[in-house]
Amino acid sequence: MRAARLSALGDAGGPATATPVVLVAHGSRDPRAAEATRALARAVGAAWPGLPVVPSWLDHTEPGPAAVLRELAVAGHRTAVVVPLLLTAAYHRRVDLPAAVAAARADAPGLTVRVADVLGPLGGPVDGALLAGLRRRLAEAGPGEYDALVLAAAGTRDAGARGSVGRVAAALGAALRVPARVSYASAAPPDTGAAVARLRGRGARRVAVAAYFLAPGLFHDAVAVAARNAGAVAVADPLTDVPELAELVRRRVAAVSRPGGIT
Known about the structure:
Blueprint: H1 2-8, E1 21-25, H2 31-47, E2 53-57, H3 65-74, E3 79-85, H4 91-107, E4 112-115, H5 128-141, E5 148-153, H6 159-176, E6 180-184, H7 192-201, E7 207-212, H8 218-229, E8 234-235, H9 243-257
Parallel strand pairs: 1-2, 1-3, 3-4, 5-6, 5-7, 7-8
Helix pairs in contact: 2-9, 3-4, 5-9, 7-8
């Protein structure tokens, strides 16, 4: 497997010239999650023919980002762009990912690593590509219009990260012209069933649930069951490899490829 990755990254033809993109996902014991990350890597690669795009994971699935970055250096690359496949800048972005990049830099000091922003919003507005991807999945979940919306996320104890999820919910609700609320599968209230029930209790009859997830797994499964039991008329699938998500990755890469980009 390692030899195959090295060959794909260009070690057979001398020093590589295309700057590779390393996608870094959270990781899960559920094999569907890893396949979703691989599918997104293929989608990004298809949008940029000839660009090496390599998936990696912080936990549960190999390879990890440090291993991929070391292999890139061995293959002759001098620069790499790391894109965190994370929707909030919580613990994994603040601690786990920097530690992996630092380990790779220690082993390959000649490799310049640029780290992009997470896919969710930070200080600025919610990216239109992210909203478009969420709307695509909602449209696929069921026909017709909704009179209220729940944005279901995995959950975090980080208040700043929860704030960013709330901003996405507000932006999505504004785009669809319906009231929107946030729910979490873990770590913070309310859960999705409670959020749907609250909206229905206030008069909403067609409540849809948008999935603020990058990949399927136990959390999304639980969200779907709770939403249906509470009376939601539609539950969206995770974003996985929608074209808008591939475009959002492209924008993150472009942002750090300019002078003064994040490092």
